[in-house]
From TrEMBL:
Family: Belongs to the binding-protein-dependent transport system permease family. FecCD subfamily.
Transmembrane stretches, start-end: 20-41, 72-92, 104-125, 131-150, 162-182, 210-234, 246-271, 291-310, 322-339
Listed name of the protein: Iron ABC transporter permease
Record's subcellular location: Cell membrane
Membrane topology value: Multi-pass membrane protein
Species of provenance: Planococcus notacanthi
Short name of one Pfam family: FecCD
Keyword terms: Cell membrane, Membrane, Transmembrane, Transmembrane helix, Transport
Length: 346
């Protein structure tokens, strides 16, 4: 039975990719292991039995069980931010047809950072609820600017031009961030902890603030995925199939900005999650975004949580912020992907 998407495409029955069940099962197992590791490791390591006590036995009031309960909000926040960044990366790669698109590579995170530091310096903002609108506006304007610059010329928005435009924009905005921050010591003190990228400040308040943006962004991504599959064939083919390419790009980009902007506002600019999670799932499942997008959410949650746990283990008894860990892992992989793909379009 055929169903009609909002883009006007007639979709035939869903073809499940080969090995999808195996990939899903392994991903869920890894997700569970990440949750257990995140609850167990920190400045004090607790055993699996204490993790289970903290989760399922409210009557147990031991020190270890209380430690586990305090780590639940951080773990959930890490999972949600990773899922948001994973889906955002998948949307950005689909919209730009750029296999190495990522919020950090295209300068979107830096745009959010600039607006946040301006808010701290000029409007004395200090809470997550105040960071979010500024980060969303900064991310959206930067995405539009980079895509506009990358679209100039006869060949349009090629992957190479988008990456170069993103790199140049990110460098320019980073200079503006430093110019605003350095003369004002109170701004530097407040901003530098946020700028590194960390999920350590995740609490139930930030989770409740983040959830609406996450849900809206993921709904947009899932609804847009069939039309984005057609867009991968080229604008002319997609238009022939009934896709309104301009509306589709705007809608999908809005979903990507909501996801990465809200995550950046609350956790700081964490890079490479969208790049890594989407590439892993596309490698395992193929190009169908109806499967790649939801599985990128799981992969992003796993990668970010593993990075957070690794930072706690490496930096023990303190911790190494997750933004540093993801950059350390992601930068070499980005170089390898660039060399392998030669920055070809999807």
């Amino acid at each position: 039975m055929n169903s009609t998407t909002i883009s006007g495409i007639k979709e035939s029955r869903l073809h499940i990719p080969k090995h999808f069940t195996i990939v899903l099962l392994i991903s869920v197992i890894l997700l569970i292991l990440c949750v257990v590791a995140s609850l167990a490791f920190g400045s004090r390591i607790v055993g699996v039995s204490h993790v289970l006590d903290g989760l399922f036995h409210a009557d147990i009031n031991s020190y270890e069980a209380n430690v586990v309960r305090k780590r639940i909000s951080r773990t959930l926040f890490s999972l949600l931010c990773g899922a948001a960044l994973g889906v955002s990366g998948a949307l950005m790669q689909a919209v730009t047809r750029n296999p190495i698109a990522d919020p950090s590579i295209l300068g979107v995170n830096t745009g959010a950072s600039l607006f946040v530091v301006c808010g701290i310096a000029f409007f004395n903002i200090s809470t997550a609820n105040e960071y979010i609108p500024l980060a969303l506006v900064g991310a959206a304007l930067t995405a539009l600017f980079v895509f506009g610059i990358g679209s100039m010329g006869r060949s349009g928005a090629t992957p190479l031009k988008l990456v170069l435009a993103g790199a140049a924009t990110s460098a320019a905005l980073s200079s503006l961030v430093m110019a605003i921050m350095i003369p004002q010591s109170h701004v530097m003190d407040q901003f530098r902890f946020w700028q590194v990228g960390s999920v350590g400040s995740g609490n139930w308040s930030s989770i409740s603030t983040f959830l609406p943006f996450l849900l809206i962004g993921i709904i947009i991504a899932l609804i847009s995925s069939p039309a984005l599959n057609a867009l991968a064939l080229g604008d002319e083919v997609a238009s022939g199939l009934g896709v309104r390419t301009g509306v589709l790009r705007l809608t999908a980009a809005l979903g990507a900005v909501l996801l990465c902007g809200a995550a950046t506002a609350l956790a700081g600019p964490i890079g490479f999650i969208g790049l890594l999670s989407t590439h892993v799932m596309r490698l395992l499942l193929g190009p169908d975004l109806r499967f790649v997008i939801p599985m990128s959410a799981i992969a992003g949650a796993v990668i970010l949580t593993v990075s957070d746990v690794s930072g706690r283990i490496i930096g023990s008894p303190g911790e190494l912020e997750v933004g540093v860990v993801t950059a350390f892992i992601g930068a070499p992989i980005l170089i390898l992907l660039t060399m392998k793909s030669k920055v070809r379009s999807l």
